[in-house]
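Reopening this ticket.

The earlier resolution said the output was attached, but the attachment link was broken on my side. Pasting everything inline this time so it's all in one place.
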Amino acid sequence: MEFLHNQYSFFCRNILSLIFFQIFFLNISCDKNNEFGLEINPDSNNLEAFISDTFELNTFSVYSDSVKTDELVGSSQFVSGSGSPLGNYIDPVFGEVNASIYTQIRLEQAYDFTPSNGTLNDVVVDSAVLYLAVDGSFSTLNEQEFLVEIIDEDFYKDSSYYSNQSLSTKGTNIATSGSLKVDPLFPGLFAGGYVDQSILRITLDVNEFAQPIIEESGNDALNGNDGNNEFLSFFKGLKISSSSGTDGGLYYINLLNSFSRIRLFFRDTSGLASEHDTLDFDFNINSNCAYYHQVIHDYSNTSVEAAVNQPELGLNQFYIQTLGGVNARFTIPSIDSLIDQNIMINKAEVILPFEDYLYDEYTPPTSLFIYRKNSAGNYEFLPDLFEGSQGGSYDFINKNYKFNITRHINEILTEKTPNDTIKILPNGNGVTANRIVLNGRNSTKKNKAKIIISYSKY
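Inline output:
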């Protein structure tokens, strides 16, 4: 019994000690919380916290400025499923999009086609083929006719070229393939064999393309690629395009892929017939070439055209499209009511919902970026971006883009920056055809554009 009594006494003493220490630390914790509250409150009063989603978010669409598109690398460095777009498609919402490529070609090496035991008349060209490596596509692919023209003006690698820019050509289509369609996921045919790369294969008129080059044998034009009176001066480059009015889809062409080139197949018939082997010569497209893509948008009679011409329609739906198409803006005019109100913004989040479907053939931008005007009138990133918390990624689960603009709003309230229009631009603007339809605050859809602000009054 004495043993049990001692154990019971020990148990009671420990319970009492535990309760004592819990009360002691609880009091300390409460005191520290109270002190923290006083430290952040300049008037030594309790902060009043509020959350509101009633501030007006005005959204609208504008036509984009042209995009710089020269020497853009495709999917390997920038955006997955991207490159130099080529083709024509008709979007039910955004209208028609036509993308063309302008590129130089370079000699594989200095060359003289004259046979050692004959003349140029003994050279017979069997075929000339333009091979283009395909890294992906946009929209449903159907057969379409690709056109190839010889450029008739100089252009340069160290110059800038934009999506709305064109170069003059000789006006003759030298492509002979007719309508084409390839699958970007399947091996392509290159020089008579299949390779582990999808290939768009366009045959060229040998009389228009090959024969004039061969006839330059012995002249400076085939002595190299640089300098005056050499190949780039003689042959300025190619425009590759697609006929408008067809819904063929866009291909993403990787011009720097080793399979993107022109191969000339020819024979030297000067000797015995048994010696007439087929030879080949390559014209390369590589990092030493100037190249860019041009994109033409036709918004005639579309909801996009209506939204741009009537900005108030952006409160229902607004639009973003890459390749120099259309982008968006928003304003938050009612934020001005918080200036001089002893307000501290804890969090400000813009939510832009969209309608998206799992198997939609028109893929959205992977992310959006937002910009504001600085004191010089130029657009710059919001300061929240540099804190790594701005957001803007495509959320396929919640079907929206979210932006944390807390610091930007606080700077408005302290009148460090004006409450001006915010510009929204898509990622991959120069190398993808992605587009998105976003819901405005007056949308008939369930989810609407809004800004949620958590703030404290003191």
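Reporter confirms the inline version is readable. The first strand starts at residue 48 and ends at 52. Residues 49-62+301-457 form a domain with the Jelly Rolls fold (CATH 2.60.120).
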